[in-house]
Specification:
This protein has a domain of 75 residues: Phage tail protein beta-alpha-beta fold, CATH 3.55.50. The chain is 25% helix and 18% strand. The strands form three sheets. Strands 3-7-6 form a three-stranded mixed β-sheet, with helices on one face. Strands 1-5 form a two-stranded antiparallel ribbon. A two-stranded antiparallel ribbon has the order 2-4. Strand 6 and strand 7 form a beta hairpin.
């Protein structure tokens, strides 16, 4: 005959009524901290001493005063000269002013990763008729291909 082992679970909430509210508060604070921490660098308000110079020098100044690093590839025009309107604002506002919407940036740990947005090709709408040069009549179902363009890309 096989002996059965039982584990007795005891509800201790009656002994210590503070367990549930304390646990709830710990979870609430942890969740609020994680949501707040998602943009802690970009929302950080900093002051810089220089307002005019190359993008590279301004990024160095922002990085030094903010206590984080930037990471980017060679597509970022670090030698381009810019002038900032303000000395004290959030990192996000500085980056928006410097790059004028041409760069994506996200936080990753203690870094801000930056990448230039891809160039969007210009789209044109061409309207008209293809006419047979001999008869002057419209050519039904004609296809127009622009030299140097790729018809598969649209």
């Amino acid at each position: 005959m096989m002996k059965k082992n039982y584990v007795h679970l005891q509800n201790n909430s009656k002994k210590n009524p503070m367990n549930k509210p304390v646990l709830f508060m710990v979870i609430l604070v942890a969740c609020a901290g994680s949501v707040n921490g998602q943009s802690r660098i970009l929302n950080k308000r900093i002051k810089i001493e220089i307002r005019e110079g190359s993008i590279g020098s301004l990024l160095d100044e922002i990085s030094r005063n903010g206590g984080f690093d930037f990471s980017h590839n060679q597509d970022i025009p670090v030698n381009k000269k810019v002038r900032l309107r303000y000395r004290r604002q959030t990192v996000h506002q500085f980056l928006d002013e410097i790059f004028e919407g041409e760069v994506f940036y996200i936080e990753y740990g203690n870094k801000v990763l930056m990448k230039k947005k891809p160039d969007v090709p210009e789209v044109y709408t061409v309207l008209g008729k293809v006419i047979d040069s001999g008869t002057g009549e419209p050519v039904p179902g004609a296809t127009v291909i622009i030299p140097g363009s790729d018809p598969l890309e649209g």
